[in-house]
Specification:
alpha+beta, 3 domains, eight-stranded antiparallel beta barrel, 22 strands, globular, F-box domain-containing protein, F-box_dom
Amino acid sequence: MNSLFERVADISEVGDPDIPMDNNDRYLHGRVDPGLDENIALVESVPSVAVKRSTKSATKDESVIFGQHACSSNSFFLALQFSISSNSPKMIMADTGLRYLDAFVTTNSARCLLTTLPTELIDYILRYLGPFELASISSTCRLLVTRAKSDLCWQRHVQENIPGVQVTSPSPCNSYRELYISHDPHWFLTKYKIWFCDYFLTGKIIISRYDPRRGCIEGYRLVAERPPPTFDPWEADDEVLIHSFTPHCRLHLEQPVLHLDALRLESLIASSGKSTGIQRFNAETPMRIDERNHNGVFSNFLLARSVEVRPNMHLWPPPTIPAQQRVRNASQEAFVGSGHKPQKRSEVCNEAFRIRRWMEMSAGSNGPVVHLGEEVYTYATLDPKVYTPTEEKPYRGIWVGDYSGHGCEFLLMNQPDDDEPFDEASVVQREDETVEEWQARKREERIYRGSLEAIKLTGDPNVPRGEYTFIADDISLTGFVRTATEQRFKGARIVRSRGHIATRMFRNDKYIESQLIMISHNRLAQYWVGFGHISFYERVDIEQFLSPFNDPPPKPTKPDP
């Protein structure tokens, strides 16, 4: 039985007529209807193949560490020398500054050599320092505190945490430094932008972004809608029905999931005098949600603390999704213990957070307030590497798929790195092959290799969020079935895959025979052999949702009767 809070959440979110989470249209299938639990046993399973997982969840770039600054205060002179071209005007300027600095080494060893440089060179050097290093250097002398507080330094640190929006003003703050401080330590929310949660079975996905008009960080739920489907027979097998799929993705702007206002510097100074630094990181931040929409539901934002992974732990994100940090998503004490909350800045997990939600009801204006239905949801992000397509891994990304009566669901299309680099010498030119054909075949074999894993970011009562929905174990010639000749999919590569099915509540799950139809890098289709139908998947353009200036105009509110 759903809790009171879940029923209210269903009314406020799922019950919105603009967001049909389930589709009441009757779906037709050529063979077996997957909507009936008793039919799951009728479909023959296929042997499972162990999915290879790298010992390193996500590869760290040598120059930029995920969530950290690679340059430190001890190495900014080296960064100055090696991070720019030796022939560029900037390098000439840097060399001039370094030679000028060297001239003072023997005669002015007791002085601070940095302050002897022209202010232009000091500003250029400070550009290589991170926010904490700028704060440290501000405590040295009056000259450096003036340069370190300059907007030239701090605008860059604000902008690099706000993809998709060009920040031109620090409003509502007086400076970019003050703006950075006002949202510290929450900038990771906008920097990593995509967040998915452990809401029971179905999950949710939100897009977090910065609104420069109000100076706030907000997160909105990403939803998908589709028109009623059509069912067409497949030319290759008229027992199989093709389900049409033309999804429309949008943000549910009527009700934010996350909202953090910019705290003025005066408020931060006043609050720091009343509490210790530890409380700043483990305290819960109340979120101001529009009272017209939240239906008596209140929300707090909680920073999370990553844990060392051990067997049998309930973790988020789940092991199916590559991640560098994981946090617990089960607690007998409602996540109030010190093991779940960071006690200092170094313990703050930049790849996860939590939201606590509850209802408050009162018996009349003067009656006691009752705290009901408290729930805590854990959100995690994705390493940009796993959803950013490359020339050799073009299917990586966030996708939306068609799941018949369950509606639209969002997926991570994961193409793991190959164990060995591609060997071009292994592709030998054939006698009857032109150079152009040989080059095209070489490019094809470079792209179509390894596995392709579709992992649910949102789910349904049968196969929930965090589980595989299908796996193509090898999209190379090893798993190749044929090239489609029928008009609907003409030219598409078809490979063997395994579809993941289960009865309700994820019971009796198994993998069944299926085929993946690789139409393009932005559209795929899955042939569920036992069910006798083909469903589609499309890439989602996340970038279009990052700027609030791209939002459609708000719908006019209906007057109260």
